[in-house]
Structure formats: C-alpha cells, structure tokens
Specification:
Oligomer: single chain
Order of helices and strands: HEEEEHEEEHHEEH
Distance between the termini: 38 Å
Length: 197
C-alpha cells in the first residue's frame, strides 16, 4: 500500500508540473508481459520502427482508462499496471522536455487485434526486444526498469540523430524515486560486483 501511495504521489506531482508548464507532453509506455515472460512489441505501419505500446496523455482520457484502452486495442486484458519509472526525455532540436512514464503489466491473453497504425505485433524475450526496439532511449528505459523491477526510476535522456542513426545520451543518471530496503541492498550488491569485475 505504501508503494502504491508513493507511486501515485510521484506520478501526480510530475504530471501537475507538466500541466503548470503547458505544452510538456506526457507519454505512457506500457510493457506488457505474457505468461512466458515475453514482452509485446509493435511495428508502426509504413516504417521500420519497432516500439513497445504507449499513448500520449490528453485531456479526454484518465490515466488508468488510457492504459486499459491501450491494452484493449490489442485484445488484451491486463493486470493492474504498475508504475516503474518517470523519465524526462529531451529531443535534440527541442528545448522542451517530455515526461515518459513506464508502466508494467501482465496478461494471459494472446493478441487478437491491433490498431490501424500498427502493421505487426510480436511477443519476444526481453533480450530480443532490446535488439529489435528502434530507439536507443526506449532500450535504455526498458533496460533500467527490467534490471531493477522493484524500484521506481527517474532520470533524463536525450534522443537525437547522428549520421541518420538514432542515438541516446543520458543527461541525468538514473536514480531511484522509490525502492524497498531489500531492493536497495540488492542493487548496491549488484553495483559492487560490477565494480569488482
């Protein structure tokens, strides 16, 4: 319950900040896992871009309703989405930041439909998803939340193009917005092992 209240506080605070600074887009990315621990990725029609499903927040859709509607667009019933990150994203040619919330959910269903703008859907392992996703900033976000699933993360990234290739730069190192004591100890132990290697 404490985790839920803290997650809601963080999400509401950042989203109120975005509303006060009109024009800051809020994007909700939903990582949906099936019973085989595979994640759903989608290919945008008439492009080569592979992404995880997501939606931009607007003034017509409540957050929970939006996430359920997103899952339903693929014919999926999902578990209660859990907030795993609130990142800021800066595009190279833009002075404004956007908020990127990462939610994680599970499903027992198989995809039986897709939105018009999606040409393909696949269930793939997390390792395969990281190879297939088209944008390095999405890969970095997915990698962080999947490496430390008991922590809610923050951080700021930049998305830019160099020689026609998308790139990502971490502008503000990832940091925990919330983590349990057990998760913190595990993360610290993992960091120490990396330093010794």
């Amino acid at each position: 319950m404490k985790n839920l209240l803290l997650s809601l506080f963080i999400l509401v605070s950042l989203n109120l900040y975005a509303q006060d600074n009109a024009g800051i887009p809020i994007f909700h990315r939903l990582l949906i896992y099936n019973q085989n621990n595979e994640v759903l990725i989608v290919k945008i029609k008439n492009t080569e871009y592979w992404l995880t499903p997501g939606i931009y927040q607007d003034d017509k859709l409540y957050l929970k309703e939006g996430l359920w509607t997103l899952a339903n667009a693929y014919g999926l019933e999902i578990s209660q989405p859990e907030l795993h990150a609130v990142f800021m994203l800066k595009y190279a040619n833009d002075t404004k930041l956007s908020i990127r919330n990462i939610f994680v959910s599970q499903t027992k269903d198989g995809v039986n439909k897709r939105p018009e703008f999606v040409s393909e859907v696949k269930w793939v392992s997390l390792k395969e998803a990281k190879k297939m996703l088209s944008f390095p900033h999405i890969i970095a976000m997915v990698n962080q939340v999947s490496s430390y699933p008991k922590t809610i993360w923050g951080g700021t990234l930049s998305n830019y193009k160099e020689d026609e290739t998308f790139k990502c730069k971490i502008l503000e190192d990832f940091y925990p917005l919330y983590e349990s004591q057990k998760a913190a100890k595990k993360r610290m132990k993992k960091s120490l092992l990396k330093e010794k290697a």
